[in-house]
Amino acid sequence: MNHLKSLNFTTLPTRNHDPKLMRRVRLIERLEEQRRIAQDPTLAPIVKRWKKTADGSKALVDHYRRLTPWWRTDAAGNVVLTVRSGLKAIEFEKGKAGISVGKMERLDGVIVTLIEATRNGELDTLLATGEDSARGIPKLRRV
Predict the structure, then answer these.
(1) How far apart are CA 142 and CA 28, in angstroms?
(2) Helix or strand (DSSP H, E) at 60
(3) Cβ–Cβ under 8 Å, residues 127 and 116
(4) If we measure between CA atoms, which residue out of 15, 57, 31 comes closest to residue 110?
(5) Contact 44, 38 (CB under 8 A)
(6) CA-CA distance, 27 to 73, in Å (whole number)?
């Protein structure tokens, strides 16, 4: 009993379910994946999945998750990076969703810059506008 008297008890803080923060964390995770793909193009992360076996029981198996790069190379050999939120590319300026990187060696530095900008909240307005339209499901109207 003497040990419990030495502790300070308090109420539990509420969890922070801030949508901005959740979008930032999700984008940072995706950018980190893109950084790993740039360093190792053969990367295929392993995730665990439940599958039914032949006898009808379920077993936990390894599943390789396919990651597609967010960059393309143009005709001149320059790399162009797009940043995605959901299924849609984020437009940084009107009609401009690509970031001109130059050579492939500079891609890692650009991704690190994007991660820092996301952490600092510089992409919050772009993520908020892209989040609603990224689902690709049109709203139905009753006539």
Answers:
(1) 39
(2) strand 58-64
(3) no
(4) 31
(5) no
(6) 22
Sign (positive or negative) of CA dihedral 121, 28, 104, 96: negative
Please compute Rg for the chain using Cα positions.
22
Q: Which amino acid is at 123?
A: L
Where do the structural domains in the chain lie, given as residue ranges? 18-42+69-133
Q: How many CB atoms lie within 10 A of CB 104?
A: 13
Give the Cα separation of 96 and 104 in Å (integer).
Answer: 20
In order along its 143 residues, the chain shows pLDDT tens digits of: 588 888 888 888 887 788 888 899 999 999 999 999 999 988 888 999 999 999 999 999 999 988 899 999 999 989 999 999 888 899 988 989 999 999 999 999 999 999 999 999 998 888 886 444 444 444 445 54
